[in-house]
Amino acid sequence: MGRQYLITSGTISDAILHDEECVEVLKYKNFGLEDLAFGGGATAETDWKEASQIIWRDLQNDIGANGIVEVHQPEEYSQLHYYDDVKPKRDATQGDYYEKFRAVSDKGACTLSIEIGKMQRRDIPFHQKMWDKALNIIKEVAEKELS
Q1: Which range of residues forms the domain containing residue 136?
Q2: Is residue 64 part of a domain?
Q3: What is the pLDDT of residues 88-123, one digit of tens each?
Q4: Do the domain assignments include residue 138?
Q5: Is residue 102 part of a domain?
Q6: Against a cut of 0.85, is the pTM above it?
Q7: Is residue 47 part of a domain?
Q8: Beta strand pairing status for 43-45 and 77-82?
Q9: DSSP per residue over 86-139, as a string?
Q10: What is the pLDDT of residues 37-86, one digit of tens each?
């Protein structure tokens, strides 16, 4: 059975809970996102510094998304904001699409929550499928590696 997403105004919110500290779970965040969930092998090019560019490439090295790291607080919170065009002009403004990741530790457990938006309603099922897969992979890998 899939996750129950909170969908409002073109955004998706979801969370996973794991019985480990967040620092341990977050070691596996990129495994689900980069290796299997998005196109079978997407990679992120960034230094994760605030205001730095982030470019996602697929297996053929084509750009799938291009944006800016707005906020990066290691092991706690990241906020990424993307351009509508994968090859934006120098003076381009960012589009509506963003991704927010928050990790909260409480009594030895970690809740990793995501918020993705703003998107057209027609795009929500596509993104739900990818993010559901990504979060399941993150949780499974963390459980396997940390058990």
Answers
A1: 6-146
A2: yes
A3: 998 999 999 998 888 887 777 777 788 888 888 888
A4: yes
A5: yes
A6: no
A7: yes
A8: unpaired
A9: SS--TTPPP-S-EEEEEEEEETTEEEEEEEEE---GGGHHHHHHHHHHHHHHHH
A10: 566 667 788 888 999 999 988 778 888 889 999 999 887 888 999 999 99
